[in-house]
Design goal:
269 residues; alpha+beta; 2 domains; four-stranded antiparallel sheet; three-stranded mixed sheet; 9 helices
């Protein structure tokens, strides 16, 4: 599924410097309307290039479809891959470093024998980034009673826990259902929820609620990014990029910036 989140930054508007334009386009859920459960289960994972295993499990729980034994493990592996990319690649780039190619190599397959080495790399490079942020003012990127440092520490801890779960083959508790016609799975960004209504063997209504949609809808993504933007100019880009990496919305992102004094009515007008 292709979508783009637009983030517009206006330095001439310190009261409300950021605007987010949510992705627009076709709703993939409508693709399964009129389909049988079997048809929908074959189709839904193909519609998402991120977290396909989470979508597959949430869909299966929503439609009470059979679940194959290795699906939960695939979900945890997808989640670990996403977490590792943020820690090993995005954090390094945000802090003006160069990602370690050896650490990133092999994430596409993520075999069991790679897990100890990956866990070590996560600790080394994750703690290196965290040690930099630990020296920053905690108000930079502080939002919803959580500092940027705490967000990074929680993400690193979650990634290391995933390594342990996969190594020990403890894959339970990562999906479920709280109501008839509803299924959820714990994707890398949070709880993914599918809801289905089935009548006479056909799907008559279907909806998908993603963590990214929720963080845009409830304003939490904007609040976090505004807090990061209000950090000193000397570190603003690094703080902003780290905050965005911690949120990690599952869409392509385009950022445009209007420098101070170039907006109508600004000093340069």
């Amino acid at each position: 599924m292709s979508a783009e989140l637009r983030i517009d930054i206006d330095d001439d508007n310190p009261g409300d410097p950021l605007s987010l334009r949510a992705p627009a386009g076709a709703n993939p859920a409508v693709t399964v309307i009129g389909k049988t459960t079997v048809q929908a289960m074959a189709l839904l994972p193909l519609l998402f290039n991120l977290c396909p295993s989470a979508h597959r499990l949430a869909a299966a729980m929503a439609m009470e479809a059979p679940i194959e034994m290795d699906w939960p493990r695939h979900l945890l592996r997808d989640d670990l891959r996403e977490q590792a990319l943020v820690i090993l690649r995005d954090w390094s780039v945000a802090l003006r470093g160069v990602p370690d190619a050896d650490s990133l190599r092999g994430l596409s397959l993520l075999r069991s024998d790679q897990l100890p080495q990956l866990a070590q790399a996560l600790q080394v490079f994750g703690n290196r980034a965290i040690s930099v942020v630990a020296n920053w003012n905690e108000n930079w990127g502080y939002w919803d009673n959580q500092s940027l440092l705490e967000r990074m520490e929680h993400r690193l801890a979650a990634a290391l826990m995933l390594c342990d779960q996969l190594r020990l083959d403890q894959c339970g508790g990562c999906y479920g259902s709280d109501a008839t016609g509803e299924g959820w799975a714990l994707a890398a960004r949070g709880r993914l929820v599918h809801r289905a209504v089935i009548s006479n063997g056909r799907i008559t209504a279907y909806s998908i609620d993603t963590p990214t949609e929720r963080m845009i809808r409830d304003g939490s993504l904007k609040g976090l990014l505004v807090s990061a933007w209000r950090s000193p100019v000397s570190v603003r880009k690094s703080v902003f990029d780290l905050a965005l990496a911690c949120a990690n919305p599952c869409v392509a992102i385009r950022i445009s910036s209007t420098p101070a004094g170039t907006t109508k009515g600004g000093a340069g007008a």
